[in-house]
Amino acid sequence: MTWKKTGTIVSTLLTICLILSASAILIGYGRGYRINVNKPTQLSTTGLISATSDPVGAQVLIDSKLKTATNNSFAIAPNWYTVRIIKEGYIGWEKKLRVQGEVVTRAEAYLFPTSPSLSPITTSGLLAPALSPDGGKIAFIVPTDATPDGVKKPGLYTLELSDRPLGRNRDPKFIVGLAITSPMRASPGAAPLTVSKEGPSLYWSPDAGQIVIIHEANILIVDLTRSPVMALPLAQNDFDLLQKEWKKEKESKDRQKLISFKQGFIDVATSSARIVSFSPDESKLLYEATAAATIPQVILPPMIGTNPTEEVRTITPGNLYVYDSKEDRNYFLLAKKELPTPTAHPKPPQATRPSSSSIGLLDNWIIGNSTASNAVAWFPTSRHLLLVISGKIDVMEYDRTNWTTLYSGPFDGSFLAPWPTGSRLVILTNLNPGASTLPNLYTVNLR
User: Residue 74 pLDDT > 90, yes or no?
Assistant: First the structure.
């Protein structure tokens, strides 16, 4: 073999070795291995923190020290860290995170404004707003005495929660005329929102195709899928049958959603819990424990790099929990004593009036009595829950972290609806009780 051929082989082998070495170094670097500066002969593994925020451009602080900006990833030694994400004009986000070697730990912050603005949606005054089960529409009644100038026809309206170009709201759509007089009354020194027992109530069908109106001793049903749309009287017996049908439909839909969960949790959810609501992406379940039980580990071995917040797998009756099916983790949310006492609603003489949903997102009369239905509902991110407690609107993450107040101004706690995009909340309030005793719908603007 000539020296020329030998040199070529050696050169090729060296090139291959260099490529393999560089690849190994890059792979090791990507997996978090670094040279230990204190012991240069040793390699130490690191983890990665991937920090994101909405809106972007926030600062990332690790143990109170500025590290970088979102959206960014950086290597860090394995340990527990307090990660804080802040942006001027927004409420800060903070969480205790565990970084493990060769594992990506996610810090995902959805930031809420410190001073959200209000914008009116309606101006004529309204009664009994109700959010459709799909979260896409609000139904309400304009009473006969709300608009003496005739700007709005009295009757049933629906408002689609979607935006026009340039961010403008869509106008409410008139559905059918109704002769309902406002039961609102104002007295000196009294709260601006005072409703007599004759006030109307609206209830959506599970498929959002029908609306039931209960006013005094009258029950009406409006079928939105037929033309022309009419408000037809409904007998008490027919109404009782309708309630049972809607309840079965709601329970059937919940069972279908629950099928995607692992069997071990399904057994607990169907025997020792009452479903309150699924997250919008249907990966998490808010539920109320009805009996003591222990949730078995259904993903084995347990996943690494999951949410490090302490979980609770033994549930206590009456408490609220959130189960995350993707990570097989269960979090305590609220104790029964933290929830407001449900308000009793009087029954009209001849109609069995369902109890109203306190925030308009859940119909107690369909899914059963629950204090949770009166106070807690999912935010469109599927990572946050809205709470109406102590006369204010709070938000927390599904593992009970980052609990903060979004709005504490005047509003009627019987209704709250998130905009499907999460850009705002819809509340019921009267900001000028001197001009009118009727409330209107306003948006609390978050984006």
Answer: yes
